[in-house]
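OmpA family protein: structure, please.
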Amino acid sequence: MNYSTLKKSLALSLVALTGVASLAVAQETPATTSSTKVFGGRGQYRTWSIGVNGGVLAPVIAIGGSNDFNKWDVNLGYGLNIRKQLGHSFALELNGLRGKVSGSNDAALSGAGSTAKEFETQLQYAVDLRGVVNVGSIDFLRRENSVGFFLTAGGGYLAYAPKVTAANGTVTDWKGKSTGPAGDKHEAKDYVKGFYIPVGAGVKFKVSERVNFNLGYTMNFVDADNFDGVYAKGTTKDHFSYGYAGLEFSLGSSAKPSLEWSNPLATMYDELKDPTLRQEVEALKNRVSAVEKSVEDLKKDTDGDGVADQFDKCPGTPAGTAVDGSGCPLPKVTTPTTVETSNVTGFEKIGFDFNSSVLKTESYPTLDKLSSVLRENGGKVTVNGYASSEGTTAYNLKLSKDRANSVKTYLVNSGVSASQVATKGFGEANPIASNDTEEGRIQNRRVETARN
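Here you go.
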């Protein structure tokens, strides 16, 4: 592949000048670091950017392939782009390109696909929409990166006009005579138009929060065999390449970081690396501990009377003392006609399982003895039901009534008149043991009887 020293120097100068311009922008505009601690929606980032680029166009591509001319030239190309970043690793980009592509045949060289002497194709425009994938950076664990790599691919539409010089010197200029592919009888136009597929790669450098410097290379596959003005091989398609350097400018609020440089993986390490976040986490842990301690203080019952200290108006009540809702002892009732059966006849208290009003078989002997006394001696009995402190107050009241009614049902079924038995439910009131232990709660799940 041969090309003139002048054109090569021009291309290298363009790249150098673009690099110098980007560095100048970096020096004149100090980078303002803006970042986000938690990766959220696109709204917290800058997602739009515009760019300009310039470089070299050539009728060859890096992966090889057939060519109609065995010598190629390097020509100036230039373009614009607008990009919308959809995520930290993917964007959609609209590109526009202009320039010219040329080449020639050297009889001393092999590989030409035609006998034409040379060609020059004016690229009026090439417009495409492509996807841009950020494939990584120099240090992918760093929050702030300055170098990134990308791949691009898409589809586009272009207009071009080849000018071909035959071996005998005859010049054929397609501009104004373009009829498209062979056999197309439509009216002649200034330019041939068709589709192409751009595929490329590149690297970008973060000059500042607003400016990127890009180096890239794109292979363009034309959906036609007349890009160079020669139908040398009917089954092949032409192609050309564009190597460029460019500046890219991020749009949007300076208070927001650029989405394309964000690094969600690095954000995952913030709690380990960011002292501010660590302090916030520790503060949250302390607040949770304080809440847990407050809850424990609310449940604290020093004297074990079933009333929390903060509501206990009579602290220090002796264990086993019946108290009211404020923790003060209930007044003793000394009615001559009311005597607890358990004190007179030795009847035991009747116990129940947790959340149950079903009589235990072990209670039957006690109940049979009480039934016998009532049937033989007459009189009346009051059956008082109680519950431990689990559950709501309303539920425990109902449960205590159910327990008392279970005892009454047993007595009536054993021959005692229903009019001889009265029932009452007291819920979790009047505990005879502490509800802070399971042993105490077992004692409080009970029924007591008193003869009248």
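Notes: The domain at 5-30+44-262 is CATH 2.40.160.20 (Porin).
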